[in-house]
From TrEMBL:
Gene Ontology cellular component list: cytoplasm
Organism: Methanolobus halotolerans
GO MF term (any one): ATP binding
Protein name: Threonyl-tRNA synthetase editing domain-containing protein
One Pfam family recorded for the sequence: tRNA-Thr_ED
Length: 136
């Protein structure tokens, strides 16, 4: 799994088109202020170590939120951080599990709808911790 984390002034997105026919129909435009954003890439090898990947992802996200002094995160599936890709079903299941575990820890979690392409705009802060890459 790959995580690309950002400390942002805002994250704006708008659904553009559905890429997975089995997901529900969603049209949403949203702007989330003063948040962290994590682009999540689930890899094929993660499918054999699901619980470890989820636990490590949650731990890394909590660590990052503590470092940037935030209690809010946007989860964004982003299948462009590695040439190894899990199945879409696995990626969706992992992201839902991460979301649930973070919410259970009192963190405000937003997720962009899975299975869509988006327009998005992101204003990343300038500090060195505003941009962090983690490999699980």
């Amino acid at each position: 799994m790959k995580l690309l984390l950002f400390d942002v002034e805002y994250f704006w997105f708008d659904t553009h088109c559905k890429t997975i026919e089995t997901v529900g129909d969603v049209e949403i435009e949203e702007r989330i202020e003063d948040t962290a954003v994590v682009f999540i890439h689930a890899e094929a090898e993660d499918e054999e170590r699901m619980s470890k990947v989820i636990k490590s992802a949650v731990g890394n996200i909590k660590w990052y939120l503590n470092k940037v002094n935030k209690n809010k995160i946007v989860l964004h599936s982003f299948a462009h951080l590695s040439s190894s890709k899990s199945s879409p079903e696995f990626a969706m299941e992992v992201i839902v599990s991460i979301e649930e575990k973070l919410k259970n820890k009192g963190i405000n979690v937003y997720s962009v709808p899975f299975g869509y392409l988006y327009q998005f705009s992101i204003h990343v802060k300038g500090e060195s911790l505003a941009k962090v890459f983690k490999e699980i």
